[in-house]
Amino acid sequence: MTEGPADSAGGRLVPLPRPVIADSDGGTALADMASLRWLARRVLGQDAAELSGKVPTPSLVRAQLEREPPAAREAVRSYLLYWIRHAEAGGNFEARTRWLRWLPGSTLVRALFALGYDGIVYRRGEAIVGHVFFQRHRNALHGFSTAVDQALEGDGHSVVMILDYLAYGAQLPGITRARVGTGKNNATRRLLARIKKHERSLGWQVGDDGWVVFSP
């Protein structure tokens, strides 16, 4: 599966276009999300052990900005602001947030949280090496950007990250479904097909349009 950001308008994956950003150790914010890797182990089978060892433990963006030391918070905020201000031209996120971009950085991040935006970031040592960004709409999560550092491109990191995102959505109170792109490209379709094989045991419904329904 090609690594890189997937815009909700088409699920297109492209390489991460910038160096990783220095950050500090994640501490408890990372430990809170460690259990999400169960879905990758279920869906990927024998491939999961090797991939899980390569992909860092996920951490929720909001938790990083609320719990971590100032230097770590600033690193995550800088990473977010880069992606906000370099959104894919013509994508849904770029169109919907264009009117917010004049706001100062900290105010802009708070405004996006208020609109239901959040994400999962992945850190290796002092670097952020990838993310999944999403927006909550009532009972649904809409994933709109998945990216991994170019140095890790082609290693399957984005597959594990998207599965972590789905595992997060499945355990989030009030969430009954989550979207992975629109199912229009081959990479997304292959991943959805792998998840679909586990529909019965998971109790989920996996659609060809990118929607994964956790409960009716």
* Residues in helices, as a percent range: 40-55%
Low-confidence stretches: 1-31
Overall pLDDT score: 79
Q: Could you describe the largest sheet, including whether it forms a barrel?
A: 7 strands, mixed
- The strand line-up of the biggest sheet is 1-2-3-4-5-7-6
- The helix/strand class is alpha+beta
Percent in strands? 15-25%
Layout: helices, strands, pairs:
Elements: H1 28-31, H2 38-44, H3 46-54, E1 58-60, H4 61-67, H5 70-85, H6 92-97, H7 105-114, E2 117-124, E3 127-137, E4 140-148, H8 157-171, E5 177-180, H9 186-196, H10 199-202, E6 205-206, E7 211-213
What is the structure about, briefly put?
With 216 residues, this protein is of the alpha+beta class. The protein has 10 helices and 7 strands.
What does this protein structure show overall?
There is one protein chain. The chain has 216 residues and is α+β, with helices and mostly antiparallel strands. 41% of the residues lie in helices and 19% in strands. The protein has 10 helices and 7 strands. Strands 1-2-3-4-5-7-6 form a 7-stranded mixed β-sheet. The longest helix is centred in the middle third of the chain and has 16 residues, at 70-85.
Summary keywords:
single chain; 216 residues; alpha+beta; 7-stranded mixed sheet; 7 strands; 41% helix; disordered N terminus
